[in-house]
TrEMBL record:
Originating species: Corvus brachyrhynchos
Protein name as it appears in the record: IgGFc-binding protein
UniProt keyword terms in alphabetical order: Disulfide bond, Glycoprotein
A cellular component annotation (GO) from this entry: extracellular matrix
InterPro entries given in the database record: Mucin_vWF_Thrombospondin_sf, VWF_type-D
Stretches assigned to the VWFD domain: 18-128
KW Disulfide bond (keyword) present: yes
PANTHER family reported for this sequence: EXTRACELLULAR MATRIX GLYCOPROTEIN RELATED (PTHR11339), VWFD DOMAIN-CONTAINING PROTEIN (PTHR11339:SF373)
Length: 128
């Protein structure tokens, strides 16, 4: 719950959240909890806003898959996030780093007044 002043009156707004994730090469879970496996070497849209909503920032998350050496399974080559006129790309081969508007930055990083936070958690990257 988030409380703020609206027209001079205090108002509490219920905040909800959901999680989507991808694991390894092919495994995805959407915000509604459905599991998917994408085996190819294409670029996929993991999530985006389908219609404008004034309570949400326009955003998208794209995943680029690539061939994995000596394997029939593809792996994640990069993940690109577009939000609040910021583009963040995490490249698999650049451990502990992201590209913010094409400039390399070390993790952890907080952007857009703390609305976008990215940090390394073991071998995984957590994007909030």
């Amino acid at each position: 719950e988030r409380c703020e002043m609206v027209d001079g009156q205090p108002e509490c707004i219920q905040e909800t959240f959901s999680t989507c994730w991808l694991s390894g090469g092919p495994h995805y879970r959407s915000f509604d909890g459905k599991a998917f496996d994408f085996m190819g070497t294409c670029a996929y849209t993991l999530t985006t806003i389908c219609s404008p909503d004034p309570t949400l920032p326009a955003f998208s998350v794209e995943v680029k898959k690539e061939e994995k050496e000596n394997s029939k399974v593809s792996s994640i080559g990069s993940i690109t996030i577009h939000v609040d006129n910021i583009t963040v790309t995490a490249v698999r081969s650049e451990n502990g780093m992201v590209r913010v508007n094409n400039h390399r930055s070390r993790l952890p990083i907080s952007l857009s007044h703390g609305k976008l936070r990215i940090h390394q958690k073991g071998k995984s990257m957590l994007i909030q």
